[in-house]
Amino acid sequence: MYVGKDRVRTDMTQNEQKIIHIVDKKQRVEWLLYPSQRSYMVMPGSGAGSEAASKSRSHNPCEGAQGASCRNLGKEQLFGRQATKWEVTFDYDGQTMK
């Protein structure tokens, strides 16, 4: 999971296919990217995913994310900046994805 000021990016694998999900809170839009198919979908969104991400600086990034659970793995240095590392698990269609 990558969190920016107004966007959240989540990379996942489903059925051995890489999927990138980007939520833009400011523009209220979501993108689903399928790199192996060289295709994407754009959907109007509520920006709820970004709302949870904006709280992640001080709270659990999974707050408000249905089917997600997060485990705080502690602090670490990333590119010279202090970061909190999280393990994010999603339950989707009876499968658990990390």
Describe the protein:
The model is unreliable at 47-58 (pLDDT under 50). A hairpin with a 2-residue loop joins strand 2 and strand 3. The protein contains 1 helix and 8 strands. It has one domain (2-97). The strands form 2 sheets. A 5-stranded antiparallel β-sheet has the order 1-2-3-4-5, with helices on one face. A 3-stranded antiparallel β-sheet has the order 6-7-8, with no helix packed on it. With 98 residues, it is mostly beta strands. It is globular and about 35 Å long. The termini are close together. The longest helix has 8 residues, at 48-55.
Structural class: mainly beta
The overall strand count is 8
Domain module count? 1
Shape: globular
Order of helices and strands: EEEEEHEEE
- Please summarize the sheet with the most strands: 5 strands, antiparallel
N→C terminal distance: 10 Å
Radius of gyration: 14 Å
Strand order of the largest sheet: 1-2-3-4-5
Helix content range of the residues, please? Answer: under 10%
Beta-strand percent range: over 45%
Number of helices: 1
Give a concise summary.
The protein has one helix at residues 48-55; strands at residues 2-3, 7-14, 17-24, 29-34, 39-44, 68-78, 81-92, 95-97.
Write the layout of secondary structure elements.
Elements (H helix, E strand, L loop, with lengths): L1 E2 L3 E8 L2 E8 L4 E6 L4 E6 L3 H8 L12 E11 L2 E12 L2 E3 L1
Antiparallel strand pairs: 1-2, 2-3, 3-4, 4-5, 6-7, 7-8
For this entry, give a set of tags.
single chain, mainly beta, 98 residues
